[in-house]
C-alpha cells in the first residue's frame, strides 16, 4: 500500500523515518547547500518542489538571509508542518507557500535555482517529462536545477544492500520489508542513463551527477 503523506501520523514521524531510509541523508543536504553557496546570487529566488516537513527550507533560510523562496507541496499536513518548522527563520515572510504543483505555474522565468529532492521518483513515468520541462521553464537563463532520487536497481543485490543499510540505521525488519514493498507501489524509478536522457529531453544542459549513495543519485543541470 502506498504511503499516505496526508496522514498526520506519517507526517509527524517523517523526519526520523527518512533518516533511517535514506543513507547519508544529511550529507546529501550538506552537498546541496555547498552547491548553492557557489551558484546563488545573494538575492536569489529559489523554488523548492516538495516542501516535506521543511528541513531543506530551514537550512536554506538560515544560510541565505537575502534570498526568497517559493515552496510547493501536495500534502496540506506536510505544508503546515513546514510552515511551523521554519517560522523562526521566516519572520520577514521570505517564503511563498503553495499547496499544489509547480506544473500549474504560469511559466515565467523567475527562479535562480529549482530543487526537487526525493520527489521525482514519485512522479509517474508518463508525467516525468512535463514535471522536468515545466521546472526548466520556470528558471532564469543561468539557473540551476538539482534533483536527488531513488534510481533503478541494476541487480537484486542492490536491493539487499539497501535493506542492510536501513537495518543498520535502526529500521525494524518489518519496516524494511514494508519499504521494499512500497518501492513497487510508490516509486517510478529510472536508470542513470534514462535520467540523463529525460533531463536532456526536458531542455536542460550540462547535466552531471553530484552525489550517489547506493541506489540514490543526485543530478545537477543548467537551464
TrEMBL record:
Keywords: Methyltransferase, Transferase
Listed CDD domains: AdoMet_MTases (cd02440)
Pfam families assigned to the protein according to its UniProt record, in alphabetical order: Methyltransf_12
Limits of the Methyltransferase type domain: 47-145
GO MF assignments: methyltransferase activity
Cited InterPro entries: Methyltransf_12 (IPR013217), SAM-dependent_MTases_sf (IPR029063)
Gene Ontology process terms (BP): methylation
Gene3D superfamilies to which the protein is assigned, alphabetical: Vaccinia Virus protein VP39
Signal peptide range in chain numbering: none
Protein name (database record): Methyltransferase
Organism: Acinetobacter chengduensis
